[in-house]
């Protein structure tokens, strides 16, 4: 009998069972382990727990008699029950903790990772060739496009430019409440979802396992069939409108033209190669402009792949980086997703979206949630954990580089060239949040001072030496020096502290 093959809960697509020299045997029995200890260790979003368990149980139903599905307390216990003294293969897990576990187990053979575009050794050769220091995403993205002949016309990038950001940074249409884009794919729950919800209720009642957020109707695919339907819906109906407003925000339209495919990719239901190919095919068929196709492909083949590779390349020490010396604990209102306690309309809206769905698109994550944490000096490791727990697509490999490197600048610039934060003017330009808000984006002092405007100048003051030495941020320090009310701005920021803004 062939060695059994162990699937983690983010390895659920067919490509994780494709046989070959670097895969399981073609007839390998499959093991899936549902370990409650995962949910005891971290207080996950309830919708995230639901999605993961629903996806695992749906995959078990698809595999039928081929799978041994174990519900137990720990992975070690589950493996003993499913395999005993037998041998097991498993594809390289997506977290260091899980990799350490499988490597510590006897009779477990770790196969290469799947679900990404390049082997880690290939990226390491690219990174080492640059001295391991200047590893900018844009350089990596160009290399990926060339290596995969992706969105290329001969040796040149399609449309004549590598990056179409200039066309993809439009503010929302003036006066519009929504983009009026075609609706995204919406999965239908079934009896497996009912069972998951009942089990989660029981865990909360009887097991002492607690969650944050709300578990409404499932919004994200839990099966390969659903994920493919979501991909077809996006490329066929929504990709064309994605690019221009991908950085915009509308209070009544949190999804806009975004794909909602990140959770399907990160559960392994979709392979990134098929996703970017589908987007390129849509452009080549004339059904989407090159700017929209490029903007989306950059998110998958550029950013997602880049973050995965950096997670392993930088090593575990990266987790503890704190270049800005941020030490403030996360406040209770943020930990509890208490959007109703927040007055600032932009932050309240983003926090409510996380509370209700476990998702927002990349700009609220970076420029509202992450920017506020950066301005307040919240401890980056705690911010990373919060994003990991509270987002349906959040995993350790996803959030560690995204938060430590991009959002909180805790690596001191190893990943990005500057901290990403702004005052209220950016939010006012790129959203409709400021209308009807109790605060005014242009006010930095007084009762109506925008928390982001005050927070921005307090951040610049706190880190003026570092920012002055960076040619991308030195003008911010010059702007600070031109303010005539710096002390009042700092007093406003101190008085607010970590109370809900």
From TrEMBL:
GO molecular function: lyase activity
Alphabetized SUPFAM superfamilies for the sequence: Cryptochrome/photolyase FAD-binding domain
Ranges of biased composition (kind: Basic and acidic residues): 162-172
InterPro entries, per database record: Crypto/Photolyase_FAD-like_sf, PhrB-like, Rossmann-like_a/b/a_fold, UV-DNA_repair_photolyase
Keyword Membrane among record annotations: no
Pfam families per UniProt: DPRP (PF04244)
The keyword Manganese is annotated on this UniProt entry: no
Entry keywords, A to Z: Lyase
Ranges for region Disordered: 156-187
Gene3D superfamilies: 1.25.40.80, Deoxyribodipyrimidine photolyase-related (1.10.10.1710), DNA Cyclobutane Dipyrimidine Photolyase, subunit A, domain 3 (1.10.579.10), HUPs (3.40.50.620)
Name recorded for this polypeptide: Cryptochrome/photolyase family protein
